[in-house]
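Protocol step 6 of 9: fold each sequence in the batch and record its C-alpha coordinates directly after the sequence line. For illustration, a two-sequence batch is reproduced in full.

Sequence one:
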Amino acid sequence: MTSVPETLPRVRPRKAKIGLVAGGLGAYWPQFPDLLPQLQRSATRVGERLRALGEDDFEVVDVGFISDPYEGAAAAERLRVAGCDLIVGFLTTYMTASMLAPVAQRSGAPVLLINLQPTEKMDHDTFDTGAWLAYCGSCPLPEMANTFRRAGIDFRSVCRAFWRTSGRGPGSVGGYGQRLCVARSGTPGMG
Protein backbone atom coordinates (compact mmCIF):
# COMPACT_ATOMS: atom_id res chain seq x y z
CA MET A 1 0.00 0.00 0.00
CA THR A 2 1.28 3.48 -0.89
CA SER A 3 1.42 6.13 1.73
CA VAL A 4 -0.31 9.42 1.10
CA PRO A 5 1.49 12.57 2.25
CA GLU A 6 -0.31 14.53 4.93
CA THR A 7 -0.34 17.65 2.79
CA LEU A 8 -0.21 17.91 -0.94
CA PRO A 9 2.06 20.46 -2.53
CA ARG A 10 0.21 23.51 -3.77
CA VAL A 11 -0.21 23.60 -7.52
CA ARG A 12 0.21 27.12 -8.79
CA PRO A 13 -2.01 27.92 -11.75
CA ARG A 14 -0.22 29.32 -14.75
CA LYS A 15 -0.49 33.02 -15.29
CA ALA A 16 -2.93 34.03 -17.98
CA LYS A 17 -1.35 35.37 -21.16
CA ILE A 18 -2.63 38.58 -22.66
CA GLY A 19 -1.48 39.41 -26.15
CA LEU A 20 -1.08 43.08 -27.05
CA VAL A 21 -0.89 44.43 -30.57
CA ALA A 22 -1.12 48.09 -31.55
CA GLY A 23 -1.39 49.49 -35.02
CA GLY A 24 -2.18 52.16 -37.51
CA LEU A 25 -2.26 52.56 -41.28
CA GLY A 26 1.27 52.62 -42.69
CA ALA A 27 0.24 54.91 -45.58
CA TYR A 28 0.07 57.76 -43.03
CA TRP A 29 3.70 57.62 -41.90
CA PRO A 30 5.34 59.32 -44.92
CA GLN A 31 2.59 61.96 -44.98
CA PHE A 32 2.71 62.77 -41.26
CA PRO A 33 6.26 62.15 -39.95
CA ASP A 34 5.43 62.95 -36.29
CA LEU A 35 2.44 60.62 -36.12
CA LEU A 36 4.10 57.19 -35.95
CA PRO A 37 6.50 58.09 -33.10
CA GLN A 38 3.61 59.59 -31.12
CA LEU A 39 1.44 56.50 -31.61
CA GLN A 40 4.33 54.17 -30.76
CA ARG A 41 4.87 56.10 -27.50
CA SER A 42 1.18 55.65 -26.71
CA ALA A 43 1.42 51.92 -27.45
CA THR A 44 4.49 51.63 -25.21
CA ARG A 45 2.61 53.38 -22.41
CA VAL A 46 -0.38 51.05 -22.79
CA GLY A 47 1.96 48.04 -22.64
CA GLU A 48 3.67 49.38 -19.50
CA ARG A 49 0.37 50.06 -17.76
CA LEU A 50 -1.02 46.65 -18.73
CA ARG A 51 2.10 44.90 -17.39
CA ALA A 52 1.90 46.89 -14.14
CA LEU A 53 -1.77 46.03 -13.77
CA GLY A 54 -1.23 42.30 -14.17
CA GLU A 55 2.17 41.94 -12.57
CA ASP A 56 1.09 39.03 -10.36
CA ASP A 57 -1.85 37.73 -12.35
CA PHE A 58 -0.99 37.69 -16.03
CA GLU A 59 1.84 37.88 -18.52
CA VAL A 60 1.74 40.38 -21.38
CA VAL A 61 2.92 39.19 -24.79
CA ASP A 62 3.53 42.47 -26.63
CA VAL A 63 4.09 41.98 -30.36
CA GLY A 64 4.57 45.68 -31.00
CA PHE A 65 3.14 48.02 -33.60
CA ILE A 66 1.78 46.88 -36.96
CA SER A 67 1.38 49.08 -40.03
CA ASP A 68 0.08 46.73 -42.73
CA PRO A 69 -1.54 43.30 -43.23
CA TYR A 70 1.86 41.57 -43.57
CA GLU A 71 2.98 42.83 -40.17
CA GLY A 72 -0.47 41.84 -38.86
CA ALA A 73 0.02 38.28 -40.12
CA ALA A 74 3.46 38.09 -38.45
CA ALA A 75 1.98 39.39 -35.18
CA ALA A 76 -0.85 36.87 -35.48
CA GLU A 77 1.60 34.00 -35.71
CA ARG A 78 3.61 35.21 -32.71
CA LEU A 79 0.44 35.49 -30.61
CA ARG A 80 -0.80 32.08 -31.78
CA VAL A 81 2.47 30.44 -30.77
CA ALA A 82 2.37 32.22 -27.39
CA GLY A 83 -1.06 30.68 -26.66
CA CYS A 84 -2.71 33.87 -25.42
CA ASP A 85 -5.92 33.74 -23.40
CA LEU A 86 -7.00 37.24 -24.49
CA ILE A 87 -5.88 39.57 -27.27
CA VAL A 88 -5.91 43.33 -26.70
CA GLY A 89 -5.90 45.29 -29.96
CA PHE A 90 -4.94 48.94 -29.40
CA LEU A 91 -6.46 50.97 -32.24
CA THR A 92 -4.24 54.05 -32.21
CA THR A 93 -5.62 55.56 -35.43
CA TYR A 94 -7.35 54.27 -38.54
CA MET A 95 -6.24 50.81 -39.67
CA THR A 96 -7.88 48.25 -41.90
CA ALA A 97 -9.58 45.12 -40.62
CA SER A 98 -7.20 43.10 -42.80
CA MET A 99 -4.45 44.12 -40.39
CA LEU A 100 -6.13 42.84 -37.22
CA ALA A 101 -8.56 40.13 -38.32
CA PRO A 102 -5.76 37.55 -38.83
CA VAL A 103 -4.59 38.19 -35.26
CA ALA A 104 -8.07 37.42 -33.95
CA GLN A 105 -8.63 34.43 -36.23
CA ARG A 106 -5.31 32.71 -35.64
CA SER A 107 -5.13 33.23 -31.87
CA GLY A 108 -8.50 31.62 -31.15
CA ALA A 109 -8.76 33.92 -28.12
CA PRO A 110 -11.40 36.55 -27.38
CA VAL A 111 -10.43 40.08 -28.41
CA LEU A 112 -10.69 43.39 -26.60
CA LEU A 113 -10.41 46.37 -28.95
CA ILE A 114 -9.37 49.57 -27.21
CA ASN A 115 -8.86 53.09 -28.37
CA LEU A 116 -7.52 55.68 -25.99
CA GLN A 117 -7.74 59.33 -26.85
CA PRO A 118 -4.44 61.05 -25.89
CA THR A 119 -6.06 64.06 -24.21
CA GLU A 120 -9.52 65.04 -23.06
CA LYS A 121 -10.09 67.23 -26.10
CA MET A 122 -8.35 68.37 -29.24
CA ASP A 123 -7.10 71.89 -29.74
CA HIS A 124 -9.04 72.48 -32.96
CA ASP A 125 -7.47 75.88 -33.54
CA THR A 126 -3.95 74.49 -33.85
CA PHE A 127 -4.43 70.89 -35.00
CA ASP A 128 -3.51 69.72 -38.46
CA THR A 129 -4.53 66.43 -40.04
CA GLY A 130 -1.55 64.53 -38.64
CA ALA A 131 -2.32 65.64 -35.07
CA TRP A 132 -6.01 64.86 -35.61
CA LEU A 133 -5.17 61.30 -36.68
CA ALA A 134 -3.79 60.60 -33.18
CA TYR A 135 -7.40 60.97 -31.96
CA CYS A 136 -8.84 58.55 -34.52
CA GLY A 137 -8.70 55.30 -32.59
CA SER A 138 -12.45 54.97 -32.89
CA CYS A 139 -12.34 55.39 -36.70
CA PRO A 140 -11.58 51.72 -37.49
CA LEU A 141 -13.98 50.37 -34.86
CA PRO A 142 -17.06 49.99 -37.12
CA GLU A 143 -14.99 48.21 -39.78
CA MET A 144 -13.39 45.94 -37.15
CA ALA A 145 -16.76 45.21 -35.53
CA ASN A 146 -18.42 44.30 -38.82
CA THR A 147 -15.51 42.12 -39.93
CA PHE A 148 -15.25 40.36 -36.58
CA ARG A 149 -19.00 39.74 -36.39
CA ARG A 150 -19.10 38.29 -39.92
CA ALA A 151 -16.12 36.06 -39.05
CA GLY A 152 -17.69 34.92 -35.76
CA ILE A 153 -14.88 36.41 -33.66
CA ASP A 154 -15.82 37.12 -30.03
CA PHE A 155 -14.80 40.65 -29.11
CA ARG A 156 -15.58 43.66 -26.97
CA SER A 157 -14.57 47.28 -27.41
CA VAL A 158 -13.80 50.07 -25.00
CA CYS A 159 -13.18 53.69 -25.86
CA ARG A 160 -11.71 56.04 -23.29
CA ALA A 161 -10.05 59.38 -23.01
CA PHE A 162 -6.92 59.38 -20.84
CA TRP A 163 -5.30 62.65 -20.01
CA ARG A 164 -2.78 63.85 -17.47
CA THR A 165 -4.38 65.60 -14.51
CA SER A 166 -2.73 67.96 -12.06
CA GLY A 167 -3.37 65.61 -9.16
CA ARG A 168 -5.79 63.24 -7.60
CA GLY A 169 -9.44 64.05 -7.35
CA PRO A 170 -12.83 63.15 -8.75
CA GLY A 171 -12.40 61.51 -12.13
CA SER A 172 -8.69 60.83 -11.75
CA VAL A 173 -6.98 57.48 -11.43
CA GLY A 174 -3.33 57.59 -10.41
CA GLY A 175 -2.99 61.09 -11.83
CA TYR A 176 -4.82 60.17 -15.01
CA GLY A 177 -8.38 61.24 -15.57
CA GLN A 178 -10.60 58.96 -17.54
CA ARG A 179 -13.93 59.14 -19.25
CA LEU A 180 -15.77 56.14 -20.57
CA CYS A 181 -17.08 56.89 -24.03
CA VAL A 182 -18.37 53.56 -25.34
CA ALA A 183 -18.41 49.95 -24.22
CA ARG A 184 -20.23 47.48 -26.42
CA SER A 185 -20.50 43.79 -26.97
CA GLY A 186 -19.38 42.34 -30.26
CA THR A 187 -21.54 39.24 -30.03
CA PRO A 188 -25.34 39.41 -29.88
CA GLY A 189 -26.71 38.25 -26.56
CA MET A 190 -23.45 38.72 -24.67
CA GLY A 191 -23.32 41.33 -21.88
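Sequence two, same batch, same settings:
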Amino acid sequence: MQTAHGKSGLQTWANRASDLLEAAVFIVCFIQCLLMLFVVLIAVFYRYVLGHPLRWTEELARFIMIWMGLLGISLGFRRNSHIGVSFFIDLLPPKLRRAIILVTRLLTLFFLGIVIREGIKISVLVGAHQISPGLQISMLWPMLALPVSGCVMFLQLVLVILIEGAQGKSVSGEPKFLQQFRND
Protein backbone atom coordinates (compact mmCIF):
# COMPACT_ATOMS: atom_id res chain seq x y z
CA MET A 1 0.00 0.00 0.00
CA GLN A 2 1.35 3.43 -0.98
CA THR A 3 1.15 6.57 1.14
CA ALA A 4 0.47 10.06 -0.21
CA HIS A 5 4.20 10.48 -0.87
CA GLY A 6 4.45 7.30 -2.93
CA LYS A 7 6.15 5.28 -0.19
CA SER A 8 4.91 1.99 1.22
CA GLY A 9 4.22 1.58 4.91
CA LEU A 10 7.39 -0.47 5.21
CA GLN A 11 9.46 2.28 3.58
CA THR A 12 7.93 4.88 5.88
CA TRP A 13 8.64 2.72 8.93
CA ALA A 14 12.20 2.03 7.74
CA ASN A 15 12.79 5.75 7.17
CA ARG A 16 11.67 6.57 10.71
CA ALA A 17 13.73 3.75 12.19
CA SER A 18 16.77 4.81 10.17
CA ASP A 19 16.36 8.45 11.26
CA LEU A 20 16.11 7.34 14.89
CA LEU A 21 19.18 5.11 14.59
CA GLU A 22 21.09 7.88 12.84
CA ALA A 23 20.19 10.40 15.56
CA ALA A 24 21.15 7.97 18.34
CA VAL A 25 24.51 7.17 16.73
CA PHE A 26 25.18 10.85 16.07
CA ILE A 27 24.50 11.72 19.72
CA VAL A 28 26.71 8.87 20.95
CA CYS A 29 29.53 9.93 18.62
CA PHE A 30 29.14 13.57 19.67
CA ILE A 31 29.37 12.62 23.35
CA GLN A 32 32.39 10.43 22.59
CA CYS A 33 34.03 13.33 20.80
CA LEU A 34 33.49 15.62 23.79
CA LEU A 35 34.73 12.93 26.16
CA MET A 36 37.83 12.36 24.05
CA LEU A 37 38.52 16.10 23.99
CA PHE A 38 38.16 16.26 27.77
CA VAL A 39 40.48 13.27 28.30
CA VAL A 40 43.13 14.73 25.97
CA LEU A 41 42.93 18.11 27.73
CA ILE A 42 43.43 16.37 31.08
CA ALA A 43 46.40 14.50 29.62
CA VAL A 44 48.00 17.69 28.33
CA PHE A 45 47.40 19.51 31.61
CA TYR A 46 48.91 16.75 33.73
CA ARG A 47 51.86 16.19 31.40
CA TYR A 48 52.89 19.76 30.60
CA VAL A 49 51.53 21.84 33.48
CA LEU A 50 51.92 19.51 36.44
CA GLY A 51 54.77 17.46 34.98
CA HIS A 52 53.13 14.16 36.00
CA PRO A 53 51.67 12.37 32.97
CA LEU A 54 48.75 10.04 33.55
CA ARG A 55 49.17 6.54 32.11
CA TRP A 56 45.55 5.92 31.27
CA THR A 57 44.59 9.05 29.30
CA GLU A 58 46.23 8.13 26.00
CA GLU A 59 44.75 4.65 26.07
CA LEU A 60 41.26 5.88 26.96
CA ALA A 61 41.36 8.51 24.19
CA ARG A 62 42.44 5.80 21.72
CA PHE A 63 39.61 3.46 22.75
CA ILE A 64 37.04 6.27 22.51
CA MET A 65 38.33 7.23 19.06
CA ILE A 66 38.05 3.62 17.85
CA TRP A 67 34.45 3.36 19.06
CA MET A 68 33.56 6.76 17.62
CA GLY A 69 35.12 6.04 14.23
CA LEU A 70 33.54 2.63 13.82
CA LEU A 71 30.09 3.78 14.94
CA GLY A 72 30.34 6.83 12.70
CA ILE A 73 30.62 4.65 9.60
CA SER A 74 26.89 3.89 9.86
CA LEU A 75 26.18 7.62 9.42
CA GLY A 76 27.82 7.39 6.01
CA PHE A 77 25.65 4.41 5.09
CA ARG A 78 22.52 6.35 5.98
CA ARG A 79 23.40 9.31 3.77
CA ASN A 80 25.14 7.37 1.02
CA SER A 81 28.20 9.51 1.59
CA HIS A 82 31.02 6.98 1.59
CA ILE A 83 33.70 7.44 -1.01
CA GLY A 84 32.92 5.59 -4.20
CA VAL A 85 33.74 5.73 -7.86
CA SER A 86 30.40 6.29 -9.52
CA PHE A 87 31.57 7.46 -12.94
CA PHE A 88 30.82 4.17 -14.71
CA ILE A 89 27.68 3.45 -12.66
CA ASP A 90 26.27 6.86 -13.62
CA LEU A 91 26.67 5.98 -17.31
CA LEU A 92 24.39 2.94 -16.98
CA PRO A 93 20.63 2.91 -17.57
CA PRO A 94 18.63 3.49 -14.36
CA LYS A 95 17.40 -0.11 -13.95
CA LEU A 96 20.87 -1.60 -14.37
CA ARG A 97 22.31 1.08 -12.06
CA ARG A 98 19.77 0.19 -9.33
CA ALA A 99 20.55 -3.51 -9.74
CA ILE A 100 24.29 -2.99 -9.41
CA ILE A 101 23.84 -0.75 -6.36
CA LEU A 102 21.58 -3.37 -4.75
CA VAL A 103 24.08 -6.18 -5.43
CA THR A 104 26.86 -4.01 -4.00
CA ARG A 105 24.82 -3.37 -0.86
CA LEU A 106 23.99 -7.05 -0.48
CA LEU A 107 27.69 -7.92 -0.77
CA THR A 108 28.40 -5.26 1.87
CA LEU A 109 25.81 -6.89 4.16
CA PHE A 110 27.54 -10.24 3.63
CA PHE A 111 30.90 -8.67 4.51
CA LEU A 112 29.41 -7.00 7.60
CA GLY A 113 28.02 -10.37 8.69
CA ILE A 114 31.54 -11.77 8.59
CA VAL A 115 32.87 -8.73 10.48
CA ILE A 116 30.24 -9.21 13.18
CA ARG A 117 30.87 -12.95 13.53
CA GLU A 118 34.66 -12.66 13.58
CA GLY A 119 34.52 -9.57 15.80
CA ILE A 120 32.54 -11.50 18.39
CA LYS A 121 34.97 -14.42 18.21
CA ILE A 122 38.03 -12.20 18.66
CA SER A 123 36.40 -10.15 21.42
CA VAL A 124 35.40 -13.19 23.44
CA LEU A 125 38.38 -15.46 22.76
CA VAL A 126 41.15 -12.87 22.94
CA GLY A 127 39.80 -9.69 24.50
CA ALA A 128 38.18 -11.34 27.49
CA HIS A 129 41.56 -12.75 28.57
CA GLN A 130 43.65 -9.60 28.20
CA ILE A 131 43.93 -6.54 30.42
CA SER A 132 44.76 -3.12 29.02
CA PRO A 133 48.02 -1.78 30.46
CA GLY A 134 46.88 1.79 31.19
CA LEU A 135 43.25 1.45 32.26
CA GLN A 136 43.53 -2.05 33.70
CA ILE A 137 40.22 -3.09 32.11
CA SER A 138 39.38 -6.15 30.09
CA MET A 139 40.23 -5.70 26.41
CA LEU A 140 36.78 -7.15 25.72
CA TRP A 141 35.32 -3.64 25.99
CA PRO A 142 37.48 -1.95 23.35
CA MET A 143 37.30 -5.01 21.09
CA LEU A 144 33.50 -5.05 21.22
CA ALA A 145 33.57 -1.89 19.10
CA LEU A 146 33.95 -4.04 15.99
CA PRO A 147 30.92 -6.35 16.36
CA VAL A 148 28.71 -3.66 17.90
CA SER A 149 29.45 -1.13 15.17
CA GLY A 150 29.13 -3.92 12.60
CA CYS A 151 25.60 -4.60 13.87
CA VAL A 152 24.72 -0.89 13.69
CA MET A 153 26.10 -0.67 10.14
CA PHE A 154 24.25 -3.84 9.12
CA LEU A 155 20.96 -2.55 10.51
CA GLN A 156 21.39 0.89 8.94
CA LEU A 157 22.20 -0.61 5.54
CA VAL A 158 19.16 -2.91 5.68
CA LEU A 159 16.99 0.10 6.51
CA VAL A 160 18.50 2.08 3.62
CA ILE A 161 17.74 -0.79 1.23
CA LEU A 162 14.13 -0.85 2.50
CA ILE A 163 13.80 2.94 2.20
CA GLU A 164 15.00 3.01 -1.38
CA GLY A 165 12.86 0.01 -2.24
CA ALA A 166 11.50 -0.14 -5.74
CA GLN A 167 11.86 3.62 -6.25
CA GLY A 168 15.61 3.31 -6.64
CA LYS A 169 16.18 6.80 -5.25
CA SER A 170 19.35 7.25 -3.29
CA VAL A 171 19.12 8.36 0.31
CA SER A 172 21.20 11.48 0.77
CA GLY A 173 21.15 14.94 2.24
CA GLU A 174 21.38 16.41 5.69
CA PRO A 175 19.99 14.41 8.61
CA LYS A 176 16.47 15.45 9.64
CA PHE A 177 17.41 15.96 13.27
CA LEU A 178 20.04 18.53 12.18
CA GLN A 179 17.61 20.29 9.84
CA GLN A 180 15.33 21.16 12.74
CA PHE A 181 18.16 23.10 14.42
CA ARG A 182 18.70 25.16 11.27
CA ASN A 183 14.98 26.00 11.07
CA ASP A 184 14.84 27.37 14.64
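Proceed to step 7 once all outputs are recorded. Observation for sequence two: The two ends are 34 Å apart (CA to CA).
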